[in-house]
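Exercise 7. Given the encoded structure of a 420-residue chain, write a plausible sequence.
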């Protein structure tokens, strides 16, 4: 037997109701904010992520599914959605449509990570990107949109954390403060952080290794090193959050795992999820489009992990809409009844009824058993006798009651039953 790759799942059956609920809610809420989908390829030139996500990040260093195609090109399965959307924005000259541009997206993402609860190698993200506004009101819109999605999903046990990692003017000062703080402790850190000390010192603040954690509490906080511009931007954002009663917690150690961020960063964590508790992460990336060859275009966005959000829905026992079950099963008793039944199925489906009819040429007993297993509300029984008389038998599977209905009225009879 060939098994699925480690860190992936097959999604089917009753599980689908969670996926539809999350995806439908995401589309509904983003459209209320006038964000529309952009669909980019699942694989991109590797270079995009080296430049976009950053060569020194864990994603690029350890987690990318990179391969050479038959033409000798280096391609990578997307490990995130922001760099591809920016590539598409630049490549299609979308700036001609004016600013801001607001995009949403939804689909599979790939990272070679050690699988555990809430951490997979193929997972699914929904996300948005708001391109072109440098103002804090854009940060607010994106954060509020994330909150509105979680509220519309009926989730409650989540918390918003906000940080600010400064810009290219003030971040060097913060980096230096971190270096001064960590230098004397360097030998005590994990081997990854000893390397990151030189290449990506911010990441020392969110290393999960037990050796590194004790030093994080007293490490310098980003907020103390912001320049005037970043501070003003941040205060403006906080005033909107307060003005609209969005609760948040400040986190001066929030640094995120991708290099493109500037100024505002945020994460939303769910209290039921243990180690992998971030359900949404995002922030501002004012330099990314320029880095990828476009004009300087300040932007902000977020992405949410659908698998983790579904775990949160289950942990909070949120009731999600059930999938529509089979409403009418047509039991076919003879060959001559089959064409009639196929036509009737079609007419009922055209009127919005979920219909299934016998495809296995089973005997009536087994057809009734199957209809019962499907949970069909009604079974229509159609054989030669019925067609000759022009009268069909319909059985209510809940009450066991059977009635005879004139063939001419059967469609209306069924449609009306479901309108009751
Ligand atoms: P990220 O924080 O790397 O951000 O991923 C966003 C979300 O994807 C996480 O908060 C988490 O819920 C989910 N996630 C990440 N890795 C895994 C995994 N291995 N298994 C399951 N779920 C996972 C980004 O990807 C940025 N592109 C977000 C963004 C958009 N920033 C600005 N715009």
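Solution.
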């Amino acid at each position: 037997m060939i098994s699925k790759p480690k860190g992936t799942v097959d999604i089917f059956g009753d599980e689908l109701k969670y996926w539809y609920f999350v995806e439908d809610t995401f589309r509904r809420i983003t459209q209320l904010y006038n964000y529309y989908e952009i669909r980019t390829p699942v694989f991109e030139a590797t270079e995009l992520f080296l430049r976009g996500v950053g060569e020194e990040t864990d994603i690029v260093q350890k987690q990318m599914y990179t391969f050479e195609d038959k033409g000798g090109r280096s391609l990578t399965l997307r490990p995130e959605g922001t760099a591809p959307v920016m590539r598409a924005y630049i490549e299609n000259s979308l700036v001609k449509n004016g600013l801001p541009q607001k995009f949403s997206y939804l689909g599979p993402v790939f990272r070679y990570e050690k699988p555990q609860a809430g951490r997979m190698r193929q997972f699914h993200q929904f996300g948005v990107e708001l391109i072109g506004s440098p103002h804090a009101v854009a940060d607010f819109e994106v954060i509020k949109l994330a909150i509105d999605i979680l509220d519309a999903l009926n989730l409650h046990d989540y918390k918003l954390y906000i940080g600010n990692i400064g810009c290219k003017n003030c971040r060097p000062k913060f980096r230096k403060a971190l270096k001064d703080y960590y230098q004397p402790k360097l030998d005590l850190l994990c081997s990854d952080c000893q390397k990151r000390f030189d290449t990506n010192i911010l990441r020392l603040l969110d290393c999960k290794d037990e050796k590194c954690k004790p030093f994080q509490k007293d490490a310098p906080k980003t907020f103390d090193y912001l320049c005037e511009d970043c501070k003003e931007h941040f205060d403006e954002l906080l005033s909107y959050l307060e003005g609209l009663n969005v609760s948040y917690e400040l986190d001066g150690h929030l640094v995120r795992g991708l290099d493109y961020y500037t100024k505002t960063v945020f994460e939303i964590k769910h209290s039921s999820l243990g180690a992998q508790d971030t359900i949404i992460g995002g922030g501002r990336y004012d330099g990314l489009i320029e880095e990828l060859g476009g004009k300087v275009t300040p932007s902000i966005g977020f992405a949410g992990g659908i698998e983790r959000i579904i775990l949160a829905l289950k942990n909070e026992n949120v009731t999600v809409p059930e999938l529509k079950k089979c409403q009418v099963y047509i039991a076919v008793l003879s060959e001559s009844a089959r064409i009639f039944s196929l036509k009737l199925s079609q007419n009922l489906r055209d009127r919005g009824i979920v219909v299934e009819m016998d495809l296995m040429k089973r005997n009536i007993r087994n057809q009734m058993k199957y209809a019962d297993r499907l949970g069909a509300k009604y079974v229509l029984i159609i054989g030669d006798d019925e067609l000759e008389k022009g009268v069909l038998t319909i059985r209510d599977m809940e009450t066991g009651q059977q009635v005879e209905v004139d063939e001419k009225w059967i469609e209306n009879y069924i449609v009306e039953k479901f309108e009751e």
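Remark. The longest strand covers residues 101-110. Students should compare their own answers with the one above.
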